[in-house]
Specification:
Elements lengths: L7 E2 H8 L3 H10 L6 E2 L5 E3 L1 H16 L4 H10 L3 H26 L1
Antiparallel strand pairs: 1-3, 2-3
Helix pairs in contact: 3-4
């Protein structure tokens, strides 16, 4: 992502995520946290923060397979859904390290 820009057009955002602009417009209607500004012409303009919010929705719906309602619940109940994933990853890494140590002791 280009950090030099303040605003991105919907086409640029859709290209970043590999989804259609119509999907982003649909998600905007479904998720209250997605509220990009509109310029003088009425075109949507997205900030880096807006794009991060879209990425959260994308991750929940496309990567994790949540329904729209499920994704809404996750976002409502957990302001940072990726934090939970990171916590789980850290626990799994500790378990793996523990198991590797046990394997070394047995061998």
């Amino acid at each position: 992502m280009h950090n030099s820009k303040l605003y991105y057009k919907i086409g640029e955002v859709s290209e970043m995520l590999g989804v259609n602009a119509s999907l982003i417009r649909f998600w905007e209607k479904e998720f209250p946290n997605l509220k990009p500004r509109k310029n003088r012409r009425g075109s949507r303009v997205f900030t880096i923060g807006d794009i991060e919010e879209i990425k959260k929705v994308y991750n929940l719906v496309k990567s994790q397979g949540h329904t729209l309602e499920g994704a809404k619940k996750v976002l409502k109940n957990n302001k940072n859904p990726n934090r939970k994933i990171l916590d789980i990853e850290q626990r799994l890494l500790k378990i793996r390290d523990f198991l590797v140590e046990i394997k070394k002791e047995i061998s």
